[in-house]
């Protein structure tokens, strides 16, 4: 089968195991933006533990600007790079209030202008927050599995995303990412992938290759 047929089969099989949805907890696009910024180099489980309290204390972008930076830093201290992320969240809040009336922008171009927001974060906000498929979320799991599936050899994630966008049906861009992320966490791990347990082992070009 060619790459497009392979992807359709992968999506079909992984849907029998996982629900294609984001693992981060949020109730609106602003919370999703905050959670996604926090999630860089940090597990979603850790982010959800932190945001459970954070989102009760900070309801709106204004709330993040009402407290000293040091207080916000303490509230997210268990997150990697918490100082940089606290500054970025406050800077995003300021811009969103001043430029967008408190509403998180819903275009790739505008999101990429926000501090701490690259294509991965923007794609998450657009797909999970606004239901827009403007690109494919390429995190460490999507990167790893795409290479194991021989879908792309690109090391640059933006270029890898462009390769994937050419072969994954647009209506499946978000689902593709979330399903691969779930499978990467549970089965197709970075070290010692569980090929013997994998539902894709009969079609995966990297199955059982150490």
TrEMBL record:
Q: Which UniProt keywords apply?
A: 4Fe-4S, DNA damage, DNA repair, DNA-binding, Endonuclease, Glycosidase, Hydrolase, Iron, Iron-sulfur, Lyase, Metal-binding, Nuclease
Xref: PROSITE patterns: ENDONUCLEASE_III_1, ENDONUCLEASE_III_2
Asked whether the UniProt record includes Lyase among its keywords, one would answer yes
What Gene Ontology molecular-function terms does this entry list? 4 iron, 4 sulfur cluster binding; class I DNA-(apurinic or apyrimidinic site) endonuclease activity; DNA binding; DNA N-glycosylase activity; metal ion binding
Residues recorded as binding [4Fe-4S] cluster, renumbered to this chain, are 188, 195, 198, 204
Recorded catalytic activity of this chain's protein: 2'-deoxyribonucleotide-(2'-deoxyribose 5'-phosphate)-2'-deoxyribonucleotide-DNA = a 3'-end 2'-deoxyribonucleotide-(2,3-dehydro-2,3-deoxyribose 5'-phosphate)-DNA + a 5'-end 5'-phospho-2'-deoxyribonucleoside-DNA + H(+)
- The coiled-coil segments of this chain are none
What cofactor does this protein call for? [4Fe-4S] cluster
Report the EC number(s), separated by commas if there are several.
Answer: 4.2.99.18
Q: How is the cofactor bound?
A: Binds 1 [4Fe-4S] cluster.
Q: What does this protein do?
A: DNA repair enzyme that has both DNA N-glycosylase activity and AP-lyase activity. The DNA N-glycosylase activity releases various damaged pyrimidines from DNA by cleaving the N-glycosidic bond, leaving an AP (apurinic/apyrimidinic) site. The AP-lyase activity cleaves the phosphodiester bond 3' to the AP site by a beta-elimination, leaving a 3'-terminal unsaturated sugar and a product with a terminal 5'-phosphate.
Q: Which family does it belong to?
A: Belongs to the Nth/MutY family.
Protein's UniProt name:
Endonuclease III
To which species is this protein native?
A: Dictyoglomus thermophilum
Q: Which gene encodes it?
A: nth
């Amino acid at each position: 089968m060619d790459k497009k047929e392979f992807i359709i089969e992968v999506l079909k099989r992984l849907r029998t195991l996982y629900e294609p949805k984001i693992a981060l907890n949020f109730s609106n696009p602003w919370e999703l933006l905050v959670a996604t910024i926090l999630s860089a180099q940090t597990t979603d489980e850790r982010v959800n533990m932190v945001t459970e309290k954070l989102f009760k204390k900070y309801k709106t972008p204004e709330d993040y600007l009402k407290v000293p930076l040091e207080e916000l830093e303490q509230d997210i201290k268990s997150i990697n790079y918490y100082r940089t992320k606290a500054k970025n969240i406050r800077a995003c809040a300021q811009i969103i209030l001043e430029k967008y009336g408190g509403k998180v922008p819903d275009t790739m171009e505008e999101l990429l202008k926000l501090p701490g927001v690259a294509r991965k974060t923007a794609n998450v906000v657009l797909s999970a927050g606004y239901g827009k498929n403007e690109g494919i979320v390429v995190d460490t799991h999507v990167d790893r599995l795409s290479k194991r599936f021989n879908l792309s050899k690109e090391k640059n994630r933006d270029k890898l995303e462009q390769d994937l966008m050419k072969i994954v049906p647009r209506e499946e861009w978000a689902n593709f990412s979330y399903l691969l992320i779930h499978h990467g966490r549970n089965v197709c791990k970075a070290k010692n992938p569980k090929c013997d347990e994998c539902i894709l082992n009969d079609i995966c070009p990297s199955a059982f290759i150490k």
